[in-house]
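In this supplementary section we document a worked example of the pipeline. Step one takes a protein sequence of length 114 as its only input; no multiple sequence alignment statistics are reported here. Step two produces a three-dimensional model, which step three serialises into structure tokens for compact storage. The input and output of this example are shown verbatim.
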Amino acid sequence: MSQELIILGNHIRDCRKEKHLSQETLAEKAEISPNTVSRIECGQMAMSVEIFMRIVRILGMDVSELLGVQSKGSGEDRELQAVIYQIQHLRKNERKIVLSSMEAMVNSIRKYRS
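The serialised model returned by step three reads:
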């Protein structure tokens, strides 16, 4: 087993648990078996780029974050990037709802400040 695979598997497991997803749910969404998810999370199996990208999308994570690579910028910047990434992967009508809600909140905050 590669140390890198173990670290990646741990990151995937942690992210999955943060999203309150079971291995079975992640497997179903990624179109792989629950056994494959288990083997990936334990660092026992390398995955294809295609499967990795599916998992990244499902978890709504930045690739560098999931790989454990320190990205430049503050923690707040990374949080913002993660939210933007999640919004980008919504359906068009869902994105419109989120963006209009965010715009209303920002305008409300600006009015409150002045």
